[in-house]
Amino acid sequence: MFQNSAARLLVPTIRSAMQSRCQSVVSGPPTQHVSTAEKVILGGGFCAASLFIPAWVLYHIRDYKGEK
Known about the structure:
Elements: H1 2-22, H2 36-59, H3 61-65
């Protein structure tokens, strides 16, 4: 019984919060230009960061297997 009354009280609040949050999205062209060099540097950094751990594991695979 308490769950039904709590749900009735909370649902309108949640819906209004979601509507106001979704209405704040602004679509359109970007306001600041990002240079090609910055895109390349950031893309390379993300690629290096995402490949670092797999490369580390492959380099140390013998240690993980117990072979020396």
